[in-house]
Amino acid sequence: MKVQYVKFFSITERVSNLFFLNLLWIVACLPIFTIFPSTAAMFGVFREWVTKKETSIFRIFFQKFKENFKQSMVLELAWLFYLGISFANLSILDNFNGIFRTVILSILISIGILLFLMSIYMVTLMVHYNLSIPILWKNSFLLSLTCLPSTFLVILIICVMAAITYFLPIVLIFVFSFTAYLLFLLCFRAIIGII
């Protein structure tokens, strides 16, 4: 009987932690320029949960936010650069038809997907290892191409969670942290398995 209570309280604690972490992440993302540092902080909390069995949220979140701010801002600037180039190319492509337009759109979409996958691996690497920015970029690029099962699962998880959120908007109260937790576990397992 006591084992059942322990399991029940463990599950409720994890669910409530995901709920509060989701709220904390949303609030920390309100100034739009802090989306990547907030995401790195959330992944840092997950790392502490997995490696140290730490269940704290707020102290670790703000500690990891501060520790990973510089590197996560570089990632955010790369995204802004990519979005700026994409917007410029899409504006120009309105004047073109046919194969040229299709090729350029395919390249932009492929780069965007690769950058997104690299971002997930990069944030996971960032919170676990103390690496320089060029090494983070190189390793996240290699991981997204060489860990194909994990990479495909990342895409699948995001698609499934997006569909669930579309049909059940109530899950917004914990969907970001829950999805990020699954992605972290998947990428962390891939990273630990390789290194």
UniProtKB/TrEMBL annotation:
Keywords: Membrane, Transmembrane, Transmembrane helix. The chain crosses the membrane at residues 20-46, 73-93, 99-129, 141-164, 170-192. It holds the Pfam family DUF624. Coiled coil: none annotated. This is YesL family protein. It comes from Bacillus salipaludis. The lineage of its organism: Bacteria, Bacillati, Bacillota, Bacilli, Bacillales.
